[in-house]
Specification:
By secondary structure, the chain is mostly beta strands. It has no helices and 11 strands.
């Protein structure tokens, strides 16, 4: 497993931007598919964006065109650039890692989460 620490959350007005970062340590980062999930009280955690170990990406339909996931394997870091934020994006965002190429399947390692709040 890898250890993950998120940063970059906060309060922003609707239409604004935030960039989340997730720093990894432990195992070889480049071997892992990475994902960003989010969760609000009373709801299931949902996969917002994911990136394979080779750079292929997935996005939840509601964030396509607004969010961009990227990774810097040299820095052991994955990013989530969030633009044109909406109040519906308010949630705790979690970084997760999955050993292997694909993001499909269970993620074994999780960060502690970072709060994103979008005001209207």
């Amino acid at each position: 497993q890898v250890q993950l620490v998120e940063s970059g959350g906060g309060l922003v007005q609707a239409g604004g931007s935030l960039r989340l970062s997730c720093a990894a340590s432990g195992r070889t980062f480049s071997n892992y598919a990475m994902g960003w999930f989010r969760q609000t009280p009373g709801t299931q955690r949902e996969l917002v964006a994911a990136i394979t170990s080779s750079g292929g990406t997935y996005y939840l339909d509601s964030v396509k065109g607004r969010f961009t996931i990227s990774r810097d394997d040299a820095k052991y870091t994955v990013y989530l650039q969030m633009n044109s934020l909406k109040p519906m994006d308010t949630a705790v965002y979690y970084c997760a890692a999955r050993d292997g190429e694909s993001w499909r399947g269970l993620f074994e390692s999780w960060g502690q989460g970072t709060q994103v709040t979008v005001s209207s």
